[in-house]
Specification:
Low-confidence stretches: 1-21
Structural class: mainly beta
Number of strands: 45
Distance between the termini: 66 Å
Oligomer: single chain
Shape: globular
Mean pLDDT: 91
Largest sheet: 24 strands, antiparallel, barrel
Strand content: over 45%
């Protein structure tokens, strides 16, 4: 019934929507048979007669105003049978002031830069964006109207940049293999150019973008003139080899050699197959582990390239938390009360593949499949120290399938299914979602939401669902949104996704005001008013609530100022902290706030500063802290950033243990210190050194032991004698060298060490805690990895020449 009702609403509303239209700027290209050298000279004869795209317009902060004559920008486009070529002259009255910091690939740094946005289907839905900095750094992203920019997407293309006496010149070559377009004799592509004058923080586009409208890609211009080109065979092979040398103070040094192969294959002009055989994720960066005293697991960022690159379509509905793949699952293992099992930190991935893309009719398809191996751990009996083997993770198949139909350039309907199938008698899981994102022709109004259902096949089969509906007005200075969500008790996506709270319904609202053009004081200014209420369904009690006012602004010197106030005027009934079903703890009213200042990163010295404070009303209970991060750019090659975070909780209250049938809470004082250093030294845009260091120390000291009462209050407990204090410290260091020695090909050398300690004794001396980290705890790893990119089309020519 609910599915049919949702579909009826969806298609009735869709019938009222139609495409976005405006007068489009246009530029034509010409074909060249010359050998164009990517040297930023533009001295080939073909460039002389190419049509010029000019008359750029401000995107921000002075939206809609023409670019000043002294920053005139002229762009030309050529095409051949294999690629398109872009030549751009970017005028600047003071070429010596052009910012050109050297950074690694996919980072802009403090640099002027130029970009081209290409939509081969000219449907306003998806753009492939290519940026080049004044230091010849490369950045590429995949932009979709619903998800924004996906910076994890990477392509193989060429560029060069050169500072001149009139400004700087950019030259680019983008092979057709890096683009998507239909098989037609005459091509019509969506097109825009972008330029940022970094020292002025001025952004310009060739085709004007009205910032009163929520759409960007729908306001692109047109590229014409490309005829009789063919979509190339998109087959790329990336073989790799890695060597690891690891050891510690307690373990003998050992070496390990690995090798494998990544494959990218263009199934047709729209869809691409990515596969990894014998995966190697040994050079992914460390997780920033914290002392977690709450009821929910810590959520980590995904650092493995296969699961970050080009995965925007799989994020629909927030049903995929890819760190589940290779993570030790939480299964109902047959473990006796006197046995303990030390589970492995990760489960080996056997192989993985994904298919993704979008065709000329706006249909996006995503298919992801991964297999992890059967993993055995040892269970130890605490009575007699006997051991036995336990299967902690069976052979498991993870699968995600997405169908995303876009229409009218700015709306979409999505079907998504995730499935986890485990070998043997372990639990299986299936989650299905139907989502919609509808906009009217001017993108002023948005209606979004969907219905999701979960099915768990375990000792006890469970079925749950989630329904949501949101409405927003996204146009002009004043904007607002309203939303509501319902999550049933048994809705569970944690086999392949992540969700913490269930069995609730919620309401949310937002209204905000912004300036669309600079005034006498601000370049940008926005103020938001947010509200959120979440109710526990069985009792209709508030389990979470918040009123929030915040503002964000940049002044005329491009310094960023922000701040806000949080106010929770109601008691909240927390059904998760007790760790027992249907028990709750009553959290009192509280109020808090923060301010934030970030100075202009264009300056050699800049600093971020953010103090914050939250106070529990009518109680001697608060939390406060500060984030400070100064940075200094010594030169275009070398920079250093230091970060310090201090977080203090006074009389924090939380679960610590069970005592028979009693739930034990404690009032505790907690102090957390985080120190970090990140630095880079760039020899060129292709060769970089990077340093990352993090020391984290957190201690929680229990001052008063309490028993949780059935009404959510606390009573003093004089019988509990356990020590549940926490003193946790970690250290990570990564020092890497990276060299992109050929397009798509990279050699990297990484040295890392790490250490960690945890005990129940509180030691508040920073020096001794820090030194204890390195007493028989430090692990060392040195690794060398080489990845080589092979394009089938180039390899075919090599063979013919051979």
């Amino acid at each position: 019934m609910i599915n049919r009702f949702s579909l009826s609403i969806l298609f009735c509303l869709a019938s009222f929507l139609f495409s976005f239209s405006q007068t489009k700027k246009s530029v034509a290209t010409k074909k060249t048979t010359e050998n164009i050298s990517i040297d930023a000279e533009l001295n080939e004869a073909s460039w002389k007669d190419a049509e010029i795209a000019t008359d750029f317009v401000s995107l921000e902060p002075k939206n809609g105003t023409p670019i000043p004559e002294e920053f005139k920008t002229e762009v030309k486009i050529l095409y051949s049978n294999d690629a398109i070529y872009i030549g751009a002259k970017l005028y600047d009255p003071n070429p010596e002031k052009i910012l050109k910091e050297l950074v690694e690939r996919d980072e802009i740094g403090t640099s002027d830069f130029f970009g081209i946005f290409i939509n081969g289907y000219n449907d306003g839905q998806q753009e492939f964006r290519f940026f080049v900095t004044a230091a010849n750094g490369q950045v590429d992203t995949n932009f979709t109207s619903s998800e924004g920019e996906d910076g994890s997407w990477n392509a193989i293309w060429e560029s060069n940049a050169k500072i001149t006496d009139f400004g700087y010149v950019i030259e680019m070559k983008i092979p057709y293999a890096a683009l998507r377009f239909p098989e037609k004799d005459k091509q019509t592509w969506g097109l825009n150019f972008f330029r940022e004058v970094r020292r002025e923080r001025q952004k310009y586009t060739w085709s004007p973008i009205d910032n009163k409208i929520g759409a960007i890609s729908q306001q692109a211009g047109i590229l014409t003139g490309i005829e009789n080109i063919k979509t190339p065979t998109r087959l790329f092979l990336i073989p790799y080899s890695s060597f690891y040398l690891s050891g510690s103070d307690t373990q003998k040094t050992k070496g390990e050699l690995k090798g494998g192969l990544d494959i990218k294959y263009g199934i047709n002009d729209a869809f691409t197959l990515d596969a990894i055989l014998v995966p190697d994720f040994g050079q992914t960066k460390f997780d920033n582990v914290v002392l977690n005293l709450g009821p929910f697991e810590q959520q980590f960022n995904e650092n493995r390239p296969f699961f970050t690159e080009g995965t925007d379509i799989f994020s629909k509905g927030n049903l995929l938390y890819s760190r589940r793949i290779g993570q030790t699952p939480d299964l109902n293992l047959n473990i006796a009360g006197n046995e303990s099992v030390e589970s492995p930190g990760a489960i080996n991935l056997v192989n993985a593949l994904k298919i993704s893309g979008r065709d000329k009719d706006g249909l996006g398809i995503g298919f992801l499949n991964a297999i992890t191996e059967r993993t055995i751990a040892t269970a130890t009996n605490s009575d007699d120290n006997s051991t036995r083997q336990v299967e902690v993770s069976p052979l498991t198949n993870y699968n995600v399938m997405v169908f995303d139909q876009r229409f009218n350039q700015n709306s979409s309907v999505t079907f998504i299914n995730t499935n986890v199938t485990r070998n043997g008698s372990f639990r299986d899981a299936n989650v299905t979602g139907l989502l919609f994102d509808l906009n009217n022709k001017t993108n002023k109004y948005n209606l979004s939401g969907g219905f999701k259902s979960s099915s768990i096949n375990d000792i006890e089969n469970k079925n749950g669902y989630n329904a949501s509906l949101f409405f927003a007005e996204n146009n002009g200075k004043f904007r607002y949104s309203l939303g509501s969500e319902y999550v049933s008790k048994d809705f569970d996506i944690n086999d392949l996704g992540i969700n913490f709270r269930t069995n609730y319904y919620s309401f949310s609202g937002n209204t905000n005001y912004r300036i669309l053009n600079p005034n006498k004081t601000f370049n940008t200014f926005r103020i938001n008013l947010n509200s959120y209420f979440e109710f526990y369904t069985p009792t209709n009690q508030i389990q979470s609530s918040n009123f929030n006012v915040n503002l964000n602004s940049t002044n005329k010197k491009n310094h960023f100022f922000g701040g806000g106030i949080n106010f929770n005027p109601f008691k909240n009934y927390d059904y998760y902290e007790p760790r027992v079903a249907d028990r709750f703890f009553v959290n009192p009213k509280n109020i808090g706030g923060w301010i934030y200042f970030s100075s202009n990163y264009n300056n050699k010295f800049a600093i971020d500063f953010e103090p914050f404070l939250t106070h529990v009303i009518n109680e001697n209970r608060y939390e406060a802290g500060v984030n400070i991060s100064p940075r200094y750019r010594f030169s275009d090659k070398f920079s250093l950033v230091y970060g310090f975070n201090y977080f203090k909780q006074k009389n924090d209250i939380g679960f610590i243990d069970f005592e028979g049938s009693n739930i034990i809470f404690a009032r505790r004082d907690r102090d957390t210190y985080t120190n970090s250093i990140s630095s880079k030294f760039s020899i060129s845009s292709e060769m970089n050194f990077n340093l990352s260091v993090r020391h984290y120390w957190s201690l929680a000291e229990n001052n008063q032991i309490n028993t949780l009462n059935s009404d959510g209050s606390l009573s003093p407990n004089t019988t509990y004698s356990g020590n549940r204090n926490s003193n946790f410290s970690t250290w990570n260091l990564d020092l890497s060298y990276s060299w992109w020695f050929a397009p798509g090909s990279q050699m990297s050398i990484l040295y890392r060490n790490n250490a960690g300690t945890f005990d129940r004794e509180i030691n508040k001396d920073f020096g001794s805690n820090f030194s204890n980290l390195f007493e028989d705890n430090l692990n060392h790893v040195l690794s060398i990895s080489v990845r080589y990119f092979i394009d089938y089309n180039q390899a075919k020519n090599w063979i013919r020449k051979g």
